[in-house]
Write a structure and sequence with these properties.
The protein is mainly β and about 150 residues long. Helices cover about 15% and strands about 40% of the residues. The strands form two sheets. It has a four-stranded mixed sheet, covered by helices on one side. The longest helix is centred in the first third of the chain and has 11 residues.
Length: about 150
């Protein structure tokens, strides 16, 4: 299956090693609204995209392989020490979809403002959840920018 690209390929496309392509697609595609750009189901692989954000999903090799790029022991949850911030237009709609699927949140939701200069801050509405393999995803909706408000 192949879907025409609607934008240039990003300069960074994380490839996530997963345990089950069908389970991951049920989450990424069916709950979060990513589309499959192309896939090789016989190899447990799919490239997915949503609004210019791309990931590659690939099932872990089950046996020894010359292309095994593990840097350590595989332990769940995968992706420890990293979270992927994904900017979306309507974080509330996705939160509702996850809630209807009884998908647990890891953190939030919250509204947060971050200093980006001596005079300005940028705001987001966000929450975090884990995908089926434990990768931490932060869905974030921009609230725009405003003059820096002094901390109390």
């Amino acid at each position: 299956m192949s879907v025409p690209r609607t934008h240039p390929r990003p300069a960074l496309v994380p490839e996530l090693n997963i345990t089950s392509l069908p389970e991951s697609l049920a989450f990424w595609r069916d709950l979060l609204g990513f589309r499959v750009l192309y896939d090789r189901p016989e190899q447990g692989f799919a490239a997915i995209e949503r609004d210019g954000v791309e990931f590659m999903l690939e099932e872990y090799e089950t046996g020894p392989s010359e292309r095994c790029w593990d840097t350590g022991v595989r332990e769940m949850p995968y992706g420890r020490g990293i979270n992927f911030e994904i900017t979306v237009a309507d974080v509330g709609r996705l939160r509702t979809a996850l809630s209807q699927a009884s998908w647990p949140l890891f953190f939030g939701p919250e509204e947060r403002w971050y200093r980006i200069s001596d005079a300005e801050e940028t705001g987001v509405r966000q929450f975090l959840m884990q995908d089926p393999d434990g990768y931490l995803l932060r869905l974030s909706q921009s609230l725009g920018r405003r003059p820096l408000i002094a901390s109390h």
